[in-house]
Design brief:
The complex is a heterodimer of chains A (125) and B (880). Chain A has 125 residues and is an alpha+beta fold. Chain A contains four helices and nine strands; from the N terminus they run E-E-E-H-E-E-E-E-E-H-H-E-H. The model of chain A has no long low-confidence stretch (mean pLDDT 92). Classes of the chains: A alpha+beta (125), B alpha+beta (880). Chains A and B meet through strand 4 of A and helix 2 and strand 16 of B.
Chain lengths: 125, 880
């Protein structure tokens, strides 16, 4: 599993990268592997409010649906619309295939670094 | 140690990197590293292996095994022949499913019942409780045998290769076989849970199972897990216990008839007797029939049905989501997912899959029974109402070797017409160019076609073509034919002369020429036989015919002699099997084009058929008429023997067969295949006036007119008289040339490296037909390629192929080109050109036209001066 050390992670398997004041959110390599073939991503719209620890959308694999949990509270300022037509990008390169960008970040969930996240995955498996 | 059971393949799965999950108490692979989407597509386009060893397998043996199964299952077990399987249900007293199951009969003395893994313990307890009252034994053999589902368009090829080229099973669904694969005994069934038209389930002893799995992988198959098994079965609309059977979203049991394929699994035959759930199922069946007739007044026994559902908005449906119709809740999604498919280009037989992978959100749902196909509904997907529709189906497997996705909303492109001028003039121009192409530049090799002579064609277009001449023999006038209309004296004369010429041709007593096609000839005979059978008691509904012995369509039998063809309204249903009372001629193991006479005799002894129909449309061997006539006479079996000579009517005689001398009583045929006529039919019989069965001849006349025709197409009848004169004058030289040319053409094609069907010891063929194998499923493509190169043939499914879209052969006939003067030299040249085109894709269109252009003058017709001059005078008056 590939979990880059420059990212932060949630226990619910999202990653977060700060680009200035903007939080970029995606799902981890572990998450895409566990989901299997991703066939649909249910995205929020620009301007939607997110709350740390709460769902902002969901990912459908062939097998099942999983909620996407937002690590920060704020306002959605961009959604990756490429995922609507090509949800398999989440399987192919989960760190390039970001899902949303959030601005006006007010609150942040407890985040893990790469080592802590790997330990968390190992414990789950 | 895992608390779950493991199949014989557990280590194999783990070594392949499978993700293992619990399913029905077993630790099973849900997917392999390539993922469900790739596994789904590989199954649809190549071949996947599924470990189905977790399915419960129960042997049923003992003297009362049939009685027990008839009582505990819903299907008609007595209808299950050896080496056949059937879908069935284990019902409870209320008509709900304990489980769905498949029953296999690999052996005469025992049945194998396969049930769902998660239900095995429950089923076992239920079956054992019922079996207490029967003298039979049940054995759970789940742990002793492994099972592999081998599914997908290449499955047949891979298994055939493992079997060293021997046939895996007969091509029809539910066929079984026991065979040796490299010395390992396996039981194979042509069944599956993927919707694939080509798919097998292989039962193999534990010690051989990993060998078989690995061998199939080496040949190109790939493993697929439960994930793909679920998406494939969902796309095929097949039920899964726990979703479409069992309890619904509210915890209420789902009636068996809610599942569309249930009606094939339930029999109410009086011979089946009472069985568990019968009364409740009868109510469901009655409700089902009302609902199918759009009578929704009483749906109490079947308030909802399982239907396919397609999401039109973006999203994915999942089991349990509510479905709404016009704002009202009408049921739930029972299974839902997103399935992939390869987008296809072009239409019809030219459809081709591209590399472009598309996904669609589909599922199955359990909704109110009064909702029709194509109705718009909505699905509540986690609080959002998404648009959806109830399509007829998600997938269709009637065009093997592929199961094809049916994409909702797809419409065929309008067919273009090329206009070179205003429509009336355009029609003339197009007709002219078609005529020149087919008559001057094409090599025509369709065995059911011929070109009639100029004299025949002109006569067909002359005055009688616009007249009526109904007539009937009247007893008061000593059976003189009485005509209804005036001006028909010439037509009367023509018809009498035609009957005389055809009697001479067949060497028989009576001929009926009013039927206007070979199919109509058969329909009239079948109708007459039924009429004659019932002639002594007209006050009850007439009994249909049965048993009838004929050639199975897949073994070359003529469509016009099948229950789906002309027999349709005249064939009885066997109350034991609940199928048409037809039994088919067995074929020789070493020559699938030849009837096995000894096996036929056994069948005749067993079924005592009241009617035997010889004849085929794929015919390269003589029919054993004389042998069977001798047998039924010796055994004193009352029957009627007919030879449907549609294809071989023009070669009746010394070079092929003389049906009446060999013992046929009735011959039917069409007059335009090997015979010289325009498109018509004919019926000949050899009954003498003092025979009892001369009455059958009267029935045949009556079923021709007024039974089949009022206007019997008097223009072509006139043309047929000239054709009969030609045939009787040139018969010997024409028939000799046709048979010699066919044998020569077959040998020449074989010498060119093509795989010619049939027995080389008889030069492959005894008729005008030549069959060439071009590769499974390639027949249509090769036939189209030849057409583009001015050679007209037809693609043909061989006896071991699934149907016309899977055709792997070409069927050709030499009669038309023989009539235009082709001999051994020309057929040699043609064989060389065809081999280049078939094997190497060479363009040969110009060379074919060059070959044809010197052979446009017809042989075997009248050419003396007086005849020719009179014909040309007459030609000038046609159309005025």
């Amino acid at each position: 599993m590939n979990h880059p050390s420059d990212l932060k992670y949630t226990k619910s398997h999202e990653w977060l990268r700060m680009e200035g004041d903007i939080a970029v959110v995606g799902i981890t390599d572990y998450a895409q592997d566990a989901l299997g073939d991703v066939v649909f991503v249910n995205l929020p719209q620009e301007g939607d409010e997110t709350a740390a620890g709460e769902s902002f959308g969901d990912v459908e694999s062939v097998k099942a649906v999983s909620e996407l949990i937002c690590p920060v509270s704020g306002t959605v300022c961009a959604v990756n619309e490429d995922l609507l037509d090509a949800p398999e990008l989440l399987n192919q390169d989960p760190y390039a295939a970001w899902i949303i960008k959030v601005e006006n970040v007010s609150e942040t969930e407890e985040l893990l670094d790469a080592d802590e996240y790997e330990a968390h995955c190992a414990a789950e498996a | 140690m895992s608390e779950w059971k493991r199949t014989q393949f557990y280590d194999t799965h783990v070594a392949s990197g499978a993700t293992m999950v619990e399913f029905g108490g077993w630790e099973m692979p849900v997917q392999y590293p390539t993922g469900i989407v790739a596994e789904h597509l590989y199954t649809r386009h190549f071949c996947s292996l599924f470990d189905v060893s977790h399915m419960g397998r129960i042997l049923v043996e003992g003297p009362q095994r049939v009685e027990f199964l008839q009582h505990v299952l819903t299907s008609n077990v007595r209808a299950l022949d050896l080496n056949r399987a059937q879908y069935s249900m284990i019902a409870d007293e209320n008509g709900f499913a304990v489980d769905d199951a498949y029953l296999f009969r690999f052996e005469e003395e025992r049945f194998l019942l396969v049930v769902n893994a998660g239900n095995t313990d429950k089923d076992w307890a239920h079956l054992c409780a019922v079996a207490k009252d029967y003298d039979c034994t049940l054995t759970n053999i789940t742990a002793d045998w492994a099972a592999i589902a081998v599914q997908g368009p290449k499955s047949k090829e891979l298994l055939t290769e493992l079997a060293g080229g021997q046939s895996v099973t007969e091509p029809m669904r539910n066929a079984l076989n026991t065979l040796e694969l490299e010395g390992h005994r396996v039981c194979v069934s042509k069944t599956g849970y993927t919707g694939e038209p080509l798919g097998y389930e292989v039962y193999v002893k534990n010690e051989d199972c990993v060998w078989l799995w690995n061998h199939l992988i080496e040949l190109g198959a790939r493993p697929a897990g439960l994930g793909a098994r679920d998406t494939l079965r969902m796309e095929a609309g097949l039920p899964l216990y726990g979703h479409e059977l069992g309890l619904d979203a509210e915890g209420k049991p789902i009636p068996i008839f809610a599942v569309p394929i249930a009606r094939f699994a339930v029999s109410f035959s009086p011979l089946k007797g009472d069985f568990i759930g019968r009364e409740a199922l009868q109510k469901q069946s009655d409700a089902y029939k009302r609902i199918m007739n759009r009578d929704f007044s009483d749906m109490a026994a079947l308030p909802r049905r399982i239907r396919p559902i397609t999401l039109l908005d973006r999203g994915v449906m999942r089991a349990g989501m509510p479905v709404y119709y016009k704002g009202e809740p009408v049921g739930w999604v029972t299974s839902g997912t997103m399935v992939p498919y390869y987008r296809s280009e072009n239409e019809g037989l030219e459809s081709q899959f591209t590399d472009d992978i598309v996904k669609r959100a589909i599922g199955l749902c359990y909704i109110n029974s009064d909702i029709l196909d194509n109705e718009a509904v909505e699905v509540d997907v986690r609080g959002k109402r998404l648009r959806a529709v109830i399509p007829e189906r998600h997938l269709d497997n009637m065009a093997p070797p592929f199961a094809r996705p049916i994409i909702y909303g797809t419409e065929l492109a309008p067919q273009e017409v090329v206009y070179e001028a205003e429509p009336p003039l355009n029609l003339l121009l197009r007709a002219d160019s078609n005529h020149l192409w087919r008559q001057k530049r094409c090599v025509n090799l369709i065995p059911s076609e011929n070109t009639p002579s100029r004299a025949v064609q002109l006569l067909c277009a002359s005055d009688p073509s616009c007249r009526y001449a109904e007539h009937k023999k009247v007893k008061s006038f000593y059976d003189k034919d009485i005509f209804y209309y005036q001006g028909t004296g010439f037509i009367d004369e023509v018809e009498r002369l035609l009957v005389d010429e055809m009697r001479k041709y067949f060497g028989c007593t009576e001929v009926e020429t009013r039927v206007i096609s070979g199919q109509m000839a058969n329909t009239a005979v079948f109708s007459a036989l039924m009429d004659w059978k019932n002639r002594l008691d007209r006050r009850r509904a007439p009994e249909r015919l049965g048993y009838v012995l004929n050639n199975h369509i897949i073994r070359g039998g003529h469509l016009s002699a099948q229950p789906m063809g002309a027999l349709h309204d005249y064939i009885a249903v066997d109350p034991v099997t609940e199928r048409s009372a037809v039994v088919n001629f067995p074929i020789c193991r070493d020559n699938i084009f030849k009837t096995d006479v000894e096996e036929t005799k056994k069948l005749i002894d067993q079924y005592r058929p009241e009617f035997i129909i010889f004849g085929k449309s794929m015919i390269i061997q003589k029919e054993p008429v004389a042998e069977i006539r001798r047998f039924v006479d010796e055994q004193k079996i009352p029957t009627t023997i007919m030879y449907d000579m549609a294809h071989v009517l023009g070669i009746v005689g010394d070079y092929f067969q003389k049906p009446f001398e060999e013992g046929a009583e009735i011959v039917t045929g069409s007059t335009h295949k090997t015979f010289f006529g325009p498109q018509r039919g004919v019926i000949a019989v050899n009954y003498k006036e003092d025979e009892l069965k001369y009455g059958l001849w009267h029935s045949i006349e009556n079923r021709a007119f007024p039974g089949s025709v009022s206007n019997h197409h008097l223009g072509t009848q006139l043309g047929l008289l000239m054709a009969a004169y030609e045939m009787n004058a040139f018969r010997d030289e024409y028939q000799k040339a046709v048979i010699e040319n066919a044998k020569h053409f077959a040998k020449a094609l074989a010498a060119q490296g093509l795989e010619v069907c049939g027995d080389p010891a008889i030069d492959y063929t005894e008729t005008h037909q030549v069959l060439v194998k071009v590769g499974y499923g390639s027949g249509a493509e090769i036939a189209r390629r030849l057409e583009n190169n001015n050679i007209i043939v037809n693609y043909q499914a061989l006896p071991d192929e699934e149907g016309f879209t899977a055709s792997g052969a070409l069927r050709m006939g030499v009669s038309e080109m023989s009539r235009f003067g082709f001999g051994p030299k020309e057929f040699d040249r043609l064989a060389g050109l065809m081999a280049e085109c078939i094997l190497h894709g060479t363009h040969i269109g110009q060379a074919v036209s060059d070959l044809r252009k010197d052979y446009t003058e017809m042989l075997y017709c009248f050419k003396d001066k007086a005849f020719t001059e009179t014909l040309e005078d007459f030609a000038g008056r046609i159309g005025f």
